[in-house]
Amino acid sequence: MREGATLALSGKMHSxxxxxxxxxxxxxxxxxxxxxxxxxxVKLLAQKLIPVPHAACTQAPDFIQWPGALIEDALEQAExxxxxxxxxxxxxxxxxxxxxxxxxxxxxxxxAIFAARSREKVGRMLHGSAIMVPGGVIRxxxxxxSMAPTPVELTAVYGEDISLFWNPHVEGLKTDxxxxxxxxxxxxxxxxxxxxxxxxxxxxxxxxxxxxxLGFGEVILIDFxxxxxxxxNRILNSTQSDAEKCVPKIDVLADAIARHHPKTVVKRxxxxxxxxxxxxxxxxxxxxxxxxxxxxGRSICDKLAxxxxxxxIDVGVTIPVARGLDQKMAIFDVxxxxxxxxxxxxxxxxxxxxxxxxxxxxDLAKRAPQQHEDQVKAxxxxxxxxxxPSVISVNMRAASAAVQEFIARTYPxxxxxxxxxxxxxxxxxxxxEDFTDEDAFPCHENGLLGMGLAExxxxxxxxxxxxxELP
Length: 471
Hints:
Elements: E1 5-10, H1 11-21, E2 29-37, E3 43-51, E4 58-60, E5 63-65, H2 68-79, E6 84-90, H3 100-115, E7 127-133, E8 137-143, E9 150-158, E10 162-166, H4 184-190, E11 194-198, H5 202-214, E12 218-222, H6 240-244, H7 249-260, E13 265-269, H8 276-282, E14 287-290, H9 295-307, E15 312-318, E16 321-323, E17 329-331, E18 335-341, H10 356-367, H11 369-378, H12 392-410, E19 423-427, E20 432-436
Parallel strand pairs: 1-3, 1-9, 6-7, 11-12, 11-14, 12-13, 14-15
Antiparallel strand pairs: 2-3, 2-6, 4-5, 7-8, 8-9, 9-10, 15-18, 16-17, 18-19, 19-20
Helix pairs in contact: 5-7, 5-12, 10-11
C-alpha cells in the first residue's frame, strides 16, 4: 500500500482544465484550490478551479508568464477555508516532467505563497504545482515550508471513467499505459489503492471478499453489528462459532482476508457511519462502497463521497411482497440496484434513492416505532422498503455487479462507454436489466464538494457517540 500523496479531482473539473489548458498550442495556466486530509497520508481534494485568463498571460509553446496579482486573489479565497493552492499549467508539446524553467518559477513563487499565510494559522500548510500534457494526464508535486518538492504519487480523476495518473517513479507499475481489466497489471495497481466498505453484512461481505481477492492494497471496514445465528445464511466466512461468540462482523471479514490475502491491509471500526471517527477513517480511502440497508447510512455516504472527492458505488437489494387477491403473501419482484455516483455529478439524493420523507420515516421508526406504524397506516408517511434479509443468491448478484461497476469504470471495456450506466437495476422476476444515463438525473449544486473534513463535518451538527470499538 502506498504512502505518497494523492491529488483528487472530479471529472467535471478535469474536463474544464483540459478545455482551458489544452485549447491551443501555447501554454496556459490555472489555479486549483484544495482542501487537505493529512492522515494517514496526504490527500488534496480539488474544491474550486480558477482559470487564469489567456489575455492576462504572456504565452508561447514552451513558456507562460502571468500576473502575481491573480495568485494573491486566489490566496484571499483560500484563506478562510485554510486551503492549498495548486498552480497548474500545460505542456502542449507533451514533455511529461517539470522543466528547469518550472523549477525556477516555483523557487520564486512558492516562498511568496507561504509568506502570505495568516499569522493566526500556525498549522502545517502544503501548496503545489502541476503540469498537464495532451490527453489530460497530470503530474504534480507538493511543497511545505522547507521548499523541498515532494512528488504527488497519484492524481486521480473521478468522472464517468476513473482515470489514475501515477508519478512515473512509482515502483512496480507500468505508468506509461493503463492496465487492461482482469490482468495481473490490474492487480498490481489495485495493490496500491484503498477501498472503504460501509456495511459488512449481506452484500457487504460479498463485495469485500471480491475486493480482497482482486488485490486491493487496503480495505477499510465500517459496521457496528455483531454476528448472530440469523446472519449465517448471508455473511461469507461467518461460522456458528462466530455467532455463539457474537464476533463483530468486521472481525469475521478481516480474519478471512488475513487467511486468503494477507498482503491486504485491513483497517476497521466497529461503528455506524453516522459516527465521526468512522467518517474520518473512510476519508482516507480512494473508493467508497455503500452496502447498508438504512436511509441514514446512504445519506451520510452520499455526503462523504462528495466532501472527500471520491466515487461512490451504492448497492441495494429489495424483494417487494404483499397480499394478493387471495390474501396470500406473494413476491412481486426481486430487485437489485447499483448506482455509480461521481463527485460533482448527480448524487443519491438527486436520484431520490432516499428522500427527506424516507429519512424522517426511518428516524421515527427508531425513536417511536408505534407512532411510525400508526402514521404509515394513516397514510401520513411512507413505509420503509424492506431489504432482503437473507437471500444470498440475490446478494451475490448485486454485490458482484457493484464490484464489476468499479472495474468497468477504472479499466474501461464497455463497447458503448460508461455514461449509460449511472444506475443499473436488474429484475429477476422479469429477467431483465434497465440502465439509466448520468444525464437523465437532475444534478443540483453541491456545497459539500471538496470540503474534506471541514467543520461542521459533512454539514451535519449531530453525530453519534464514539464507536464501541476502535481496533
